[in-house]
């Protein structure tokens, strides 16, 4: 295959990043925007030793599930990958993405596994409760948005179909304020300027709103004016925060945070629980689906009211507290001290005396507790995209809780981790949940049960 070569291609399935996957002369070809069942003319854009990338030159046979995306910058932005696929079909393809990961990274018999239909949303739009838009300047105009697909070209986003309208409205207002007050805007190429990111987060259930300005330096010119204008144009704002990040990095937040006006946090509600979300606190971006996800995890934990439960990678304690009313004792751990402070406060606020939270790594705390005679019946884990730490998985195999509940946001790392645990654990079922409609991402809850004789 040569660069720019055109060739016919039939798309067999969706890849993990939402691209169409086909085979030409037994070589795998990835085509963004192509859908399963489509017959296309493809043009090779990149040739790798084991695969090729291509673009659609022409669609000869369209998928019956192909629709017109509603977003005006869909092709440029790259934030969503599947707006051109009908929503009911997205749910089927996401289940298939999990199957593909298990086929690639495990030796399990896939046909024997109970992989359930994906749980979707009734209204799969306007669900994201937080936006992090990079700020830039073009022809004297302040822009805020995301860098385009595979580029450092800033796409100005004035409307977004998956963001909650409150976050878009807030970002637009702050952008205008920066423009009106002529606040210096960060230039990524020159590493000069001041304001680099606008973060807006809303409590979908509470209606509270937080604005975070991420700046390269602590000194913020016209600070009082900025605060006054934000309060005037966005009276619903409860919290205005500045975060300082002067590093040359793609990481959004720096280490130093200061509240400029209002509270340090906003409140959000999940079911019967209320959470205080400070600027850097991790919180699920789609609260409506989070309730479904956590309820699935609770069901998978098989709780009777007596179990000792561990919430590993616990963050602000969300999952542990969600399950606490059906557990005998809950212990959570995280390496971020601020998260553990929040978790302890959340446990106190919700009057959950049988939940305690610790700063540290699960692979260090669990063996220590076992020596002290405390062995968990259930471990629940919701790791980052990189999956579980290998040392943690080895610890689980030593400690052998009866039930292991794995909440995953990355099918590939889930599959690899399941293969590690497979020697002692049987997968009872996997339940996919669509947390991010119109993107290729899929979360799922896996119930692993200790095999007899272990």
UniProtKB/TrEMBL annotation:
Q: Which domain of life is it from?
A: Bacteria
Q: What is this protein called?
A: RNA methyltransferase
Organism whose genome encodes this protein: Mesobacillus subterraneus
- Mind telling me which PANTHER family this protein's record contains? PTHR11061:SF45, RNA M5U METHYLTRANSFERASE
What does the record give as the active site? 409 (nucleophile), 409
The record, for Gene3D superfamilies, names: 2.40.50.1070, Nucleic acid-binding proteins, Vaccinia Virus protein VP39
Q: Which InterPro entries match?
A: MeTrfase_TrmA_AS (IPR030390), NA-bd_OB-fold (IPR012340), SAM-dependent_MTases_sf (IPR029063), TRAM_dom (IPR002792), U5_MeTrfase_fam (IPR010280)
> Coiled-coil segments, which residues?
none
Q: Which Pfam families match?
A: TRAM, tRNA_U5-meth_tr
The protein's GO terms of the molecular function aspect are: 4 iron, 4 sulfur cluster binding; rRNA (uridine-C5-)-methyltransferase activity
Ranges for domain TRAM come to 1-58
Per the UniProt entry, what is one GO biological process?
rRNA base methylation
The protein's UniProt keywords, in alphabetical order, are: 4Fe-4S, Iron, Iron-sulfur, Metal-binding, Methyltransferase, S-adenosyl-L-methionine, Transferase
Describe the family membership recorded for this protein in Swiss-Prot or TrEMBL. Belongs to the class I-like SAM-binding methyltransferase superfamily. RNA M5U methyltransferase family.
């Amino acid at each position: 295959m040569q660069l720019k070569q055109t060739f016919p291609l039939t798309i067999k399935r969706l890849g993990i990043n939402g691209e169409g996957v086909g085979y030409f002369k037994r070589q795998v070809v990835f085509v963004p925007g192509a859908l399963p069942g489509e017959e296309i003319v493809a043009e090779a854009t990149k040739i790798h030793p084991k695969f090729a990338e291509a673009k659609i030159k022409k669609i000869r046979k369209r998928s019956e599930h192909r629709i017109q995306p509603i977003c005006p910058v869909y092709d440029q932005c790259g934030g969503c990958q599947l707006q051109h696929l009908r929503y009911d079909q997205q749910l089927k393809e996401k289940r298939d993405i999990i199957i593909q990961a298990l086929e690639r990274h495990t030796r399990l018999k896939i046909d024997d596994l109970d992989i359930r239909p994906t749980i979707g949303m009734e209204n799969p739009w306007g669900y994201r409760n937080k936006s992090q838009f990079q700020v830039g300047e073009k022809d004297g105009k302040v822009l805020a948005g995301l860098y385009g697909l595979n580029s450092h070209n800033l796409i100005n986003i004035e409307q977004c179909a998956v963001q909650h309208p409150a976050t878009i409205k807030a970002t637009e207002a702050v952008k205008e304020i920066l423009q009106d007050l002529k606040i210096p805007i960060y230039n990524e190429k020159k590493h000069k300027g001041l304001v680099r990111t606008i973060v807006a987060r809303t409590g979908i259930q509470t209606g509270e709103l937080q604005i975070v300005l991420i700046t390269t330096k602590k000194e913020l010119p016209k600070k009082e004016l900025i605060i006054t204008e934000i309060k005037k144009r966005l009276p619903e704002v409860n919290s205005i925060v500045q975060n300082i990040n002067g590093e040359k990095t793609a990481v959004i937040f720096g280490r130093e945070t200061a509240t400029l006006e209002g509270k340090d946090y906003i409140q959000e509600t999940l079911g019967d629980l209320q959470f205080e979300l400070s600027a850097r606190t991790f919180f699920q971006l789609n609260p409506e689906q989070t309730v479904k996800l956590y309820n699935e995890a609770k069901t998978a934990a098989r709780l009777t009211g007596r179990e000792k439960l561990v919430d590993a990678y616990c963050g602000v304690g969300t999952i542990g507290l969600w399950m606490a009313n059906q557990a005998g004792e809950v212990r959570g751990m995280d390496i971020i001290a601020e998260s553990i402070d929040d978790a302890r406060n959340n446990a106190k606020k919700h009057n959950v005396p049988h939940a305690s939270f610790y700063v540290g790594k699960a692979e260090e705390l669990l063996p220590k507790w076992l020596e002290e005679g405390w062995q968990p019946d259930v471990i629940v884990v919701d790791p980052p995209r990189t999956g579980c730490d290998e040392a943690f998985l080895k610890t689980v195999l030593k400690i052998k809780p009866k039930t292991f509940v794995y909440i995953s946001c990355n099918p590939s790392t889930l599959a690899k981790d399941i293969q590690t645990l497979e020697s002692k654990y049987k997968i009872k079922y996997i339940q996919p949940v669509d947390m991010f409609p119109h993107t290729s991402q899929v979360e799922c809850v896996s119930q692993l049960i200790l095999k007899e004789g272990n």
